[in-house]
Amino acid sequence: MLRVLTSALRLPSPRRPLEARGCAANLAAANREIQVCALAGPDQGITEILMNRPSARNALGNVFVSELLKALAQLREDRQVRVLIFRSGVKGVFCAGADLKEREQMSEAEVGVFVQRLRGLMNEIAAFPAPTIAAMDGFALGGGLELALACDLRVAASSAVMGLIETTRGLLPGAGGTQRLPRCLGVALAKELIFTGRRLSGSQAQALGLVNHAVAQNEEGNAAYHRARALAQEILPQAPTAVRLGKVAIDRGTEVDIASGMAIEGICYAQNIPTRDRLEGMAAFREKRPPRFVGE
């Protein structure tokens, strides 16, 4: 059993970094619905996925989902990505949910295949090796909130509006909402929100524990993004391998009994012992200086 767990929990080995990672490289792809931007300078290590489909309020359509999956597949192999932020380029909207206009044109069989693909997208986000942050500066409804729930951390403008509203459309959450919301808020509260299709403001969501931080919106409409970026900057100086293994230990451990969770933590800890960063952390403590972690 432990051998199987050890294999399952092993972090991927470093791969060749994603080509054309810089923000300038995205100018030629400005018409794409999904744009990837790797920040530089003191923010090096933070990568952003910008959702930019203004005509459909970032609704989760076929092309949109395909581009998101492609970006995630490339970024997950890039060990230079220490924090991944999901943000919107459409003012007032994070993600309006599934593209119901596209879905109306699908057969029942096609709908089933697409929803399964959408569920796979959310699983890819949840399984991303580095910490992920959703910056919700506007509406995050249905699949949009499911996308945010798949992230590790959520930051919202206090005026943002979010909810799993599928029952108001004759549907139920199908991209992980029925599973991730109860794990986030508890079963009874999740049932209440899903059964009623209730919408919450960012402030209400923070009070319930649905988002980590809620901030007053600014004139530019990107206050949540700036708070998400500040949160990412707090993560950046920490040992990357330790952070990634900590994420694995939490995610895997919360799905099992505590004894199995302790075993998972032990396996993750054992993987961290031989790292250069652990030795650097000990040396920095001994020498009373800030550590210089390299992710190895």
Characterize the structure shown.
The chain has 296 residues and is an alpha/beta fold. The strands form two sheets. The chain has a six-stranded mixed sheet with strand order 1-2-3-5-7-10, sandwiched between helices. It has a four-stranded mixed sheet with strand order 4-6-8-9. The protein is 45% helix and 14% strand. The protein has helices spanning 2-9, 62-75, 100-104, 108-126, 143-150, 177-185, 187-196, 202-208, 223-235, 240-253, 258-272, 276-287, and strands spanning 34-38, 46-51, 83-88, 93-95, 132-136, 139-141, 153-157, 161-163, 200-201, 213-215. The model is unreliable at 12-20 (pLDDT under 50).
Task: Summarize the topology.
Blueprint: H1 2-9, E1 34-38, E2 46-51, H2 62-75, E3 83-88, E4 93-95, H3 100-104, H4 108-126, E5 132-136, E6 139-141, H5 143-150, E7 153-157, E8 161-163, H6 177-185, H7 187-196, E9 200-201, H8 202-208, E10 213-215, H9 223-235, H10 240-253, H11 258-272, H12 276-287
Parallel strand pairs: 2-3, 3-5, 4-6, 5-7, 6-8, 7-10
Antiparallel strand pairs: 1-2, 8-9
Helix pairs in contact: 1-11, 2-4, 4-5, 5-6, 6-7, 10-11
Descriptive labels:
296 residues; alpha/beta; six-stranded mixed sheet; four-stranded mixed sheet; 12 helices; 45% helix; globular
Helix content class: 40-55%
Content-based structural category: alpha/beta
The chain-level mean pLDDT equals 89
Gross morphology is globular
